[in-house]
Amino acid sequence: MPPIPTAFVQAAAPRLPYRFASASALVIALFAAPASAQDTTGETTEVLESAAKTTPPPTTAPLTGAERVVQFEAGEVAYDSNGESATATGNVVLRSEQRSVRADTVKWNRKTGLIVANGNVRLVDENGNQLYTDKLELTDTFEAGSMEDVLLALREGGRLAAVHGERMADGTVELDKAAYTGCPVENADGCPKKPSWRITSEKVLYDPKTSDVRFKGAYLELFGMRLLPMPGLSVRTDGSAVSGFLIPEIQFSENNGVQVSGKYYARLADNKDLEAKADLFTDAPPMISGSWRHLTDIGAYQITGYLTTSRRSTNATTGDTERDVRGYLFTNGRFQFDPNWSLDYSIRRASDRTFLRRYDISYDDRLRSLVKLERTGATSFFQLAGYATQSLRLNADQGQVPVALPLIDWRKRIDDPLLGGKIEIRGNSLALMRDAGQNTQRAFAGARWDLRRVTGMGQLVTLTGLVRGDVYHSTDNQLTDTALYRGNPGWETRGVALAALDIQWPFAGRAFGGTQVITPRLQFVASPPIRNLAVPNEDARAVDLEDSNLFALNRFPGYDRVEDGARMTYGVDYDLQFPDWRIRSTVGQSYRLSNQRTIVPDGTGLSEQVSDFVGRTEVRYKDFVKLTHRFRLDKDDLAVRRNELDATVGSSKTYLEVGYLRLNRDISSTIEDLRDREELRAATRIAFARYWSVFGSGVFNLTDREEDPTLTSSGFDPVRTRLGVAYEDECLELGLTWRRDYVDTGDARRGNTFQLYFALRGLGFR
Q: Residues near 133 by Cβ (< 8 Å), separated by ≥ 6?
């Protein structure tokens, strides 16, 4: 007697109906019986439903290697002794390890080991992919054989249909006349729908070992129209990336003419990949680029580079150009050595100042590179860093741009053993070096004490004390154009001391069907005279009174300048919340107890004894309305010195965004860091016909010569505008955009740019 077949080796679980359990138990018993016992059944087919209710299910130890443990369930099982076959009917279920098959009927041939499933067949593999067919052949090791009218629903959402399928000897499944799509084939109501795109192919090879699906003779169809051949296309059923060519991108611009971009993606391992790209232009030499990404045991990093040769601008005034090798390098990463120590870096360098704009890579006007090593503990922090900046402004002097190396910062927080509160001890050192400008080195050490208490009346009181000692050394001070920033050459020292009292008193109650909180706030800050002008000002230049620094201990943004004297700051915070709405507002002003002139420039709102009024208001309604308004009003005539609005109205599909900024401070034109300006930014998207939308955006310079004498603008100069139309559904994104640049920047000329793009969701690339 041959051994028990592996296709039906275990009986049903006890929880299943008794009728099924008895039938399955008996068929296994018959398969294991001697040959003489089988012969007594004759040539007929017996239906075994409940003839052996007392026969217990056999117990079988799990098999290994080529022997696969298979469990089955069925309503009825019949055995043909003459044909040595068994037929299971009635919601048949086969299970083996992480695979399962459901069918109306399953027939097993003991001689050949062939298993044939018919009617509403569904196979689920170990990766969660589901195969649907009318007829499926399985081997006795539970591997798929021949299939007709196949539908494969991948775990990641894609679907693969074929007229015929065959499992080869090496385990590969070959599908004939197949089609693949990542789109849903039913709508929300369960009604059939045509996919937006699909890939048709004469043959598809599926390797279950590697989860690779490879297409031969593939074409892309959009809305039923065959558009593009896709040689070498492959996807993975587990959703992970595979190597191959990506869909080309097409663009037209004034600078480079028609641009066709081709990409190849190489999946080198689960933790590293490479993308190579070639750009061909009708009006410029070709360009190559690449991006490498690597995830290591302690962190991750990436390297991106561009390289070409073309004519570049050598003189912004005359417009002279020369042919040269041009490119751009960007790499960044983060490494975590242990829970405390980490290393971050970011390096950005371009061959020249117009390369990024010429090839539509970035509109940044400066590239900053940094490296920083940090240790973060529960009560301490240490940083060793270096910074360098490359200016991309045509008229900027790169020699005046400093390199900061090294920057050392150390902080330690301890509990105050005497008065309570917290003490933070800090040390900082910075060296700034310029090729053609002032060099400065600075170091300071200090301590800050904070004590926060809530009184019995609900007032939040904060006491602060700060002491610090600074040492500066500078050379070539005369090379700094703004005299206010130079300081004295050579060695200089100064001491800083400060004391502050901050009182907040919130009042909460019901209002307008919600809750409101009104919080008056009063702050006193006192400091003895400080030798500010004796030392250089490198990091505290862009000073301006705003709502964000109204109650700051030092309204200067850095360490090189510290407000001295005594002042009082007062204001009120308001917060109102009721269903779906939230309104928050802040307004305040500062008053110096002395009318002595300060080092703060006129027009910043802080130069006189009484400051300007500053405030902020935020309004939010659900996720439909978001509005933020910031302002500064002149203390004398309430003239608007700062007016800033950021608003978003709409949903994620249809919305309007507006940003407006006007600085009317009348600051001296000799202070280049505080120029007045006015600009408008707007963007909108309007969705229609369920999947379609039109969109547009623009940046407009509203600054005129009265606000900034160095400009030649008329008061309404578009900087950049964009319009487009897009289609986006569950699996397809395509669109056409038009952009116009209105400013010449060297060889990056003003003009129009058109881009056609589409993305196929489910294939993992655009």
A: 121, 123, 147, 148, 149, 150, 151, 165
